[in-house]
Specification:
Pyrv_flavodox_OxRed_cen, 4 domains, alpha/beta, Pyruvate-ferredoxin Oxidoreductase, domain 3
């Protein structure tokens, strides 16, 4: 084995696991494997502050019992309860940014075997950033290869999902394949069998990760972002999937290959948000622009991406639907590691605004109410306040379920009229700009990334969206327009307030 530890020196292991990744299970497996094979094992854990502001750190020290014998008895060792900087033999992370956090905390050194998964569980900061705030993991991989004795990585969560298991099983397989512990592959598998829970699925995920890491050691693979665009998947032709299969064939025949993946993602999103007819409407709106596009289809790609976002805005129906979906409750149970028969309640925070209220009304009525100051004052006094609801109670669940099922009503609402009028205007501006300046047409397409969420977040994004559109359209003949647009987009993405963007535009126009 590659482990060359003295008999009286412990093997030190730190595991950083995000909630729901089974860190407790994985640390238990490691401890059990050690204890069953002649080692003294101690495990402690330090919980993160909150979901995605810090993973739970599980720390283990394993000590060969042969070095603990004295007068024929095993002496109880004194082991550390917390990891010390630059003194950890194995560091494992169930998510790539947690691997970065481990290096930031000096857990990784030239004595460390670093094993991490490249999948992403987005942090709050990444989600709240206007547009695409997802951090690039390439720097993490580069630092890992520079500072660790051995850096082993791959999308271990995907491997687990392919075998209908969880990442703890695939991480266990990766650890076995690394050779960083003095145990055989069969000894690791015996531990899984000993637990008697989901043995087959866990073993399959273990073997998948084991083979992957063994192959990785023999021939290192380049880093590929877990959120990287994927090719259109092959779908079974069962009756259940005929609609999806039909869309796949249509996209492949009517759209260029470079944008297949993003168009297909848009179709799936819109079909789920409303229905297949609405997904077809998306394709019909997109197709004329693709026909006019040239080269690498930069405009088509960005338009396909943001048009799907524009046509699937966050309304009351969508939010209610998301809060009552079966997969949401499954995810909650998974995150808090609850058992299937445990009773778990979720507390949701709601703050309905006046625009959300009149946006849900029929078109003509909503337009009339939106201009009624007395109605707005009445709403502000009686309705405009925070609410904390237990969405798992029968009363609130039925209310949310009923609201989430009102998709047929959506197309008649004032909010839908507003959003589609906005979309049509945006597409019209892109079409006009396309004949003048291709690059600026692409910039116009990208402005929709500023609109997201609902309530105050939506209002701020909408304001910045309009400022960017007005600036680009009024500066189409300016030779520096593209440079200015790039700068202004950066300002809009970095500053939550509309005033910062407005001030930057005024400074540019003043000069």
């Amino acid at each position: 084995m590659s482990v060359a530890k003295k008999k009286n020196e412990p093997i030190k292991i730190a595991l950083l696991a995000v909630g729901g990744d089974g860190g407790g299970v994985l640390s238990g497996w490691i401890r059990m494997t050690a204890e069953d094979n002649g080692y003294w094992a101690q495990s402690t854990s330090i919980a993160g502050v909150a979901q995605r502001t810090g993973a739970t750190v599980y720390y283990m020290e394993l000590m060969n019992k042969e070095g603990l014998e004295k007068d024929g008895k095993i002496q109880t060792p004194v082991l550390a309860q917390m990891p010390a900087p630059f003194d950890i033999d194995i560091v494992m992370a169930t998510e790539i940014m947690e691997a970065g956090r481990a290096m930031y905390r000096d857990f990784v050194s030239d004595k460390t075997t670093l094993i991490f998964s490249t999948n992403r569980n987005l942090a709050i900061k990444e989600k709240e950033t206007p547009g695409d705030g997802i951090l690039d993991g390439r720097s993490i991989v580069e630092l890992a290869e520079k500072h660790a004795k051995k850096s082993l990585f791959g999308n271990l969560k995907l491997i687990a999902e392919q075998h209908k298991s969880v990442i703890s099983a695939s991480m266990f397989g990766a650890l076995a394949a690394s050779g960083a512990l003095p145990f055989t592959k069969q000894q690791f598998l015996d531990t899984i069998a000993k637990t008697g829970i989901a043995v087959q699925a866990s073993s399959n995920a273990f073997n998948g990760a084991y083979d992957y890491i063994k192959d990785f050691i023999a021939k290192p693979k380049p880093y590929e972002p877990a959120l990287k665009k994927a090719e259109i998947p092959a779908m079974p032709s069962s009756s259940k999937n005929k609609t999806v299969a039909g869309f796949i064939n249509y996209i492949k025949s009517e759209f260029p290959k470079p944008i297949h993946d993003v168009v297909f993602s848009g179709v799936l999103h819109l079909a789920d948000w409303h229905n297949a007819t609405w997904a077809q409407e998306y394709l019909d709106k997109l197709k004329p622009f693709v026909a006019k596009d040239q080269g690498e289809y930069t405009l088509s790609f960005n338009l396909a991406k943001y048009l799907a976002t524009a046509m699937a805005y966050d309304d009351l129906i969508f939010v209610a639907d998301q809060k009552t979906r079966t997969e949401r409750f499954a995810e909650v149970y998974d995150q808090i590691e609850a058992k299937p028969d445990d009773i778990v309640h979720t507390l949701d925070f709601l703050h309905p605004s006046f625009p959300e209220f009149y946006g849900f009304l029929p078109k003509k009525m909503g337009l009339k109410v939106s201009k009624n100051k007395k109605m707005e004052a009445w709403f502000a006094k009686r309705m405009d306040k925070d609410r904390r609801i237990k969405s798992t109670s029968l009363f609130w669940y039925l209310n949310l379920y009923f609201l989430g099922g009102m998709k047929r009503w959506r197309m008649k609402t004032f909010r839908h009229y507003e959003e589609m009028d906005n979309v049509d205007g945006w597409l019209g501006r892109i079409d006009r700009m396309l004949s003048q300046n291709y690059a600026l047409a692409v910039d116009l397409a990208k402005t929709y990334r500023l609109k997201k969420g609902y309530g105050d977040t939506y209002a701020r994004g909408h304001g910045k969206f309009w400022l960017m559109n007005e600036f680009i359209m009024s500066n189409a003949d300016n030779g520096k327009a593209q440079k200015f647009a790039a700068h202004l987009m950066e300002v809009a993405l970095q500053n939550p307030k509309v005033e910062a963007l407005r001030k930057s535009i005024e400074e540019i126009e003043a000069n």
